[in-house]
Amino acid sequence: MYGKKVKLRFTYLSLILVVLILSTYLVLKSLEENVVYFISPTDIKGLAEINYDKKYRVGGMVKKSSISMNSEQINFIITDYKNEISVKFNGVIPNLFSEDKGVVAEGFLKDRNFLEASKILAKHDENYMPPEVKKALEGN
Question: What distance in Å separates the CA atoms of residue 127 and residue 32, rounded to the nearest whole number?
Fold first, then answer.
């Protein structure tokens, strides 16, 4: 049948292929945790079913005149200029968080109109808008 050299080459080739597939999977899996995907308030309104035990990332713009703070929490509204969702957050907000600026809030939905956030992410300079936010705002 096949000689010793052919079997050895096939074994090495198979081993290299398995290592390549495994390393690609591990790289993609680690990147998945660092990429920020989010849904817009309009997407939330369109969901057929909401899983209240799942963390959601909601992105959009902070509605003008919607921020209210006290010593323990901050409340604000995220809008995509079609729909809105109220957000409650306990914790330290980013320095660049302000009205009419892009924001991504991560937390648990209490209903289609209210998110209890555990993390707030704000954009990092005056002119930058995350491509996903820009696309969601233009597409809606």
Answer: 26
